[in-house]
Amino acid sequence: MSSPQEPYQQPPVKSRRKLWIILASIGGVLLLVVLGIIILVNVVGNATNQARGLADGFTRMVISGQSSQAYDEYLDPALKEQLSMEAFIAGVDTLEMNDSCKPSYNDFKVGTDNGVKAADVAGVITCDGKEVDLAYRFEGTEELKMTNIKLRPKA
Predict the structure, then answer these.
(1) Less Cβ crowding at N or C end of the chain, within 10 Å?
(2) pTM of this prediction?
(3) What number is the average pLDDT over the span 112-141?
(4) Does residue 90 carry a pLDDT above 90?
């Protein structure tokens, strides 16, 4: 006696729609986080690079004896009111910098407050046998200009 065989029935296929929705949501959030980090790094990096470029240009001019041109190109009008060109040049001349002098920057702080960009740069100019401390502050909305300067022999 043989029994009639019933056809094999497959279990119903489970829908994985919820799984795909959850995975897509997690992937989307991760993508947004990564993009946010990349944008933040680029913005901060660009501001830091801009501050480094300004500091480098100004310092190289001062070292090479182009103090009047550095004064004209980099100083903010408000700082020029406090510091005459003659006093600036005389102060730089007392540092007796020459071609052996090389700047190194060890601190950059950049930020924006109410649309005004600011960059603080600190470092040292190393010359044969001496060092000069430097600290600059650049501010502006479009173009950054020097609003504060410190150049003095390292104690």
Answers:
(1) N
(2) 0.69
(3) 90
(4) yes
CB 99 within 8 A of CB 76: no
pLDDT score, position 129: 85
Residues with Cβ within 8 Å of 74's Cβ and at least 6 positions away in sequence, in order, are 54, 57, 58, 61, 145, 146
Tell whether the torsion through CA atoms of 78, 83, 89 and 93 is positive or negative: negative
Residues in the chain: 155
- Which is it for strands 102-113 and 116-127: parallel, antiparallel or unpaired? antiparallel
**pLDDT of 47 over the 70 cut:** no
Bridge partner residues of 31 (DSSP): none
Burial classification of residue 60, based on how many CB atoms lie within 10 Å of its CB (0-12 exposed, 13-18 middle, 19 or more buried): middle
Do the Cβ atoms of 136 and 149 come closer than 8 Å?
yes
Q: Do the beta carbons of residue 136 and residue 55 sit within 8 Å?
A: yes
Beta bridge partners of 124: 104, 133
d(CA 133, CA 153): 6
Note whether 134 and 151 are within 8 A (CB). Answer: yes
Chain center to CA of 123: 15
| pLDDT, position 10 | 74
